[in-house]
Please model this.
Amino acid sequence: MRPEEQAPLRRRDISLEPLAARITEAAPELTTGRRVVGDPKSAAGKRTLYLPAFLHMEVKRHLEWFAEKDDDGLLFVGERGAPFRRSTFGRKWRKARAKSGLPDDFRFYDLRHTGHTLSTQSGATLKDTMVRAGQSTAKAALIYQHSDDDRQQEVADGIDAKVRDARQKAQEKKQERAS
Model:
């Protein structure tokens, strides 16, 4: 999700079964510090984002420990009980990034890139990725997809497996016809 999509999330927007977040609005923070609540960046931004099961315990704990308790309560609460602010979030992000061993130049937004790269690597189509990201154009979706040497080796291995399988099946058919 975009940070401005995370800011207005409420407890009611989260489902544990299935694990998902409903994104219906955005609340970008202006340079004045004021938040403007409205529609997401595009019509495609209104969506249900299904989350991977490995996050279940973290989401459940977040709801129990950090989110405001009532149904309309904020999911991510800032230091003063309002939606988190860019300045406060930046400090907390730098601390969390250092604690987890991420490089200093790893930006919070890089998590969005990572998530969408992982979705395509897990087999998601371009349209699947566009829906997950809340993007209305393929061009926008492609910005978030990266391919490194490890992934290129996986692709090569996948091609190799397909060709070997096809050759094996052709060989078996050839033997059947010969017998």
Notes: Residues 119 and 125 are 9 Å apart (CA to CA). The radius of gyration is 21 Å. The chain has seven helices and three strands. Helices lie at 3-6, 56-65, 86-100, 110-121, 126-133, 138-143, 149-178.
